[in-house]
Design brief:
Blueprint (H helix, E strand, L loop, with lengths): L3 E8 L3 E3 L12 H11 L4 E5 H8 L2 H4 L7 H12 L1 E5 L11 E4 L3 H9 L6 E4 L2 H9 L5 E7 L7 E2 L10 E8 L5 E7 L3
Parallel strand pairs: 1-6, 1-7, 3-4, 3-6, 4-5
Antiparallel strand pairs: 2-8, 7-10, 9-10
Helix pairs in contact: 1-4
Length: 190
């Protein structure tokens, strides 16, 4: 069965964005881009909430053609073009999008159906609201967190209203030169 892995940049105090959705505090550099690029190139399915999907859709399809496109921009743009996209949205239902499935209801059944299809891990990018819904339904199988060296004090938290403990097993850690630390966990289902 395929696994859903939540890929998220977070602050040291557990926020994924500032109070107004700001992400200008996230540190990324070529070292992180190369590392992440290798990992996501193995994935064939990306999962987004509506807001993140629309942000990605407005940027990645044409970014490889930009005269200022970096190596990362070109590689990620090509990956984005071929990856199957799943979007959680109540407002986008009924839309017919190429290589994209919209899930607007029956979240648990719809996600479990995708998890039982052939393929690699399903990578959940950003999308805090979608992440909260998936956590609530116990559908996330792992967390790939990039802890940024900053304390925001307020903002959009990664974890909210957790009803039961979620036990995790640490798979790997990595320290990047820019000060970001990767924490890679799998959910302990026992």
């Amino acid at each position: 069965m395929r696994k859903i892995i939540s890929f998220m940049h977070i602050s040291l105090d557990g926020f994924v964005a500032g109070p107004n959705g700001e992400m200008d505090w996230i540190k990324v550099d070529e070292e992180i881009f190369d590392y992440v690029g290798k990992r996501i190139s193995e994935g064939d399915t990306a999962l987004y909430g509506r807001v993140t999907y629309q942000m990605m859709e407005n940027y990645w399809p044409t970014e490889a053609d930009s005269p200022t496109a970096t190596k990362h921009d070109i590689e990620h743009s090509k990956w984005y073009a071929k990856v199957y996209k799943v979007v959680l949205s109540k407002t986008m239902k009924g839309m017919d999008l190429t290589n994209t499935k919209i899930i607007s209801d029956n979240l648990s059944d719809s996600i479990n159906e995708i998890k039982h299809q052939a393929g690699g891990d399903i990578l959940l990018f950003g999308s805090p609201t979608a992440t909260h819904s998936l956590i609530e339904q116990n559908l996330i199988d792992g967390y790939w967190l990039f802890v940024n060296p900053i304390i925001l004090g307020q903002g959009i938290p990664l974890f909210v209203d957790i009803k039961e403990k979620i036990k995790l097993n640490l798979l790997a850690t990595r320290q990047f030169t820019c000060g970001v630390t990767e924490l890679n966990y799998t959910v302990d289902r026992q």
